[in-house]
Every structure is written in C-alpha cells, then in structure tokens.
Amino acid sequence: MLHRTLALALLFAPTVAEAQLCEGQSAAIAPDGRAFGHLPYGDAPETELVTLPSEYSVGNPCVVRADILPDLLRLFAAAQGDPSVMGQLRALSCQRSIARQRSVFCRGETSSPADRAISVAPPGYSEHSTGYALDFAVRPANGCPDAEACMAATPAARWLRANAPRFGFEQSFPGGNKQHVKWEPWHWRWVGATEAAPGAAKARFVFARARRLYPADPGVLPLVVKVTVQPPVPVAPVAVVPSKKKRR
C-alpha cells in the first residue's frame, strides 16, 4: 500500500520545466516562463534580416530586422549632427541567433549558469535573437570599455536617454529593474515611435509581456489620442406666441 501511495504521489507531482543551456547544464524555468530572470524569445526569420551599413557598426557586421533600419539610421544621423554627443554612436552587438547566444553563454562554463546569466542571457532568452534589439557603443571610448556601466555617464549615452524614444527605441534593462536583470545602459530594443509605424505592431507583440510587467526606462510612451469636444452652441430661447382663436 505504501509503495502504491508513493507511486501515485510521484505520478501526480508537479514537474519542473527546465531550459537546456550548455552541455550537461540546465536551468529551472519559473512559472512565468523566465530563466534566471530573462524572458523567452525566438529567432528572427532570416528573410526579415538586413545588414546595417558598416560605417555605423563596430566589430562584427550588425544584422537587424528590416523594420528597425529606417529609424536606426535616422537615430545615427541625428546623433552625428548634434555636437553635444561629443563622439559617435555605433552599433556594437545586434541580432544573435539562439545558436550564437549558446556559444556566447557557454564560453564561461567555469562559472555557474546563474552567475553567467547576470550579464549574458541564456540561449533562447535574449532580446537579441528577435532582431529588434542592439547594444550601442561610443567612439572614441575614452577609457570606458564597451558594455560597461561607465558608458551611462558619456554625453552620447545621455543623448540616447533623451532622444532614443522618439526614434522608437527604449532601454530594456534600466537600473533596479523588477526583472532582476543587470543594468544595461547600452542595450535598447525597438518598438516603433508609434504603433502605426511600419513593423511596430509586430515588435510590440514580441515584447508585450516584457513591456507590461517590466517597463522600460526610458520607454516609448503609448500613443495618446486627444478627443476635443466642441462646447454646445448656445441657442437663444424662442418666444412662443399663443395663437388667437377666431370668433365665429
């Protein structure tokens, strides 16, 4: 009887889903689908990816969704034309496939997956795989390594915070975010300046849960439609004159 009870308990015990990370390593998936704080994302279709002109990137070629490219080029042009930037904004790391993310995440297998996930999203849980997110770098770097918090103090990074949302970009992981992901002032995702922007509806669908549960800061504000109600036009009262009955 005891064996039967134990067997039934094991049969109906809740199972814990796990995400396969590196060889021989996995991570428990939280009830909300997150792994080490990161939300799951799929790969962008290769047919929707384009390469950013090389003069706007550093390191490897920057590949992004085609929908993001017009706003990204406008952002670079605006930054380059603003003397307060005091440097050049460049794309450092753009779309990374899940396979590529696995190789990046698993490079430091001497540390635990939880420790690595503080600064690198696990494979299948990175916004980069969507093709809508990228990391910015500043040139000249002036002693601040790429993808480090000191970037936030640069004039270029301050310009990004003040201006990126009008080009449809928002900072995914601000300091102290409730997602418990490391502050990344260099990491921005594109959702379109308005929902009507070409491709914005698709991007906003991809990031809908992240934007609802863990708002970006600065974020792209929702479109507010103001409805103006015209005040009623006063109408002068009309005097009603009673009709006189004719005598017969």
What does the secondary structure layout of this molecule look like, with pairings?
Elements: H1 2-12, E1 18-20, E2 26-28, E3 49-51, E4 63-65, H2 69-80, E5 88-93, H3 98-105, H4 113-116, E6 133-139, H5 155-163, E7 169-171, E8 187-190, H6 200-206, H7 208-213
Antiparallel strand pairs: 1-2, 3-4, 5-6, 6-8, 7-8
Task: Walk me through the structure.
This protein has a single domain (19-212), classed as Muramoyl-pentapeptide Carboxypeptidase, domain 2, CATH 3.30.1380. Helix content is 23%, strand content 13%. It is built from seven helices and eight strands; from the N terminus they run H-E-E-E-E-H-E-H-H-E-H-E-E-H-H. It has a four-stranded antiparallel β-sheet with strand order 5-6-8-7. It has a two-stranded antiparallel ribbon with strand order 1-2. A hairpin with a 5-residue loop joins strand 1 (18-20) and strand 2 (26-28).
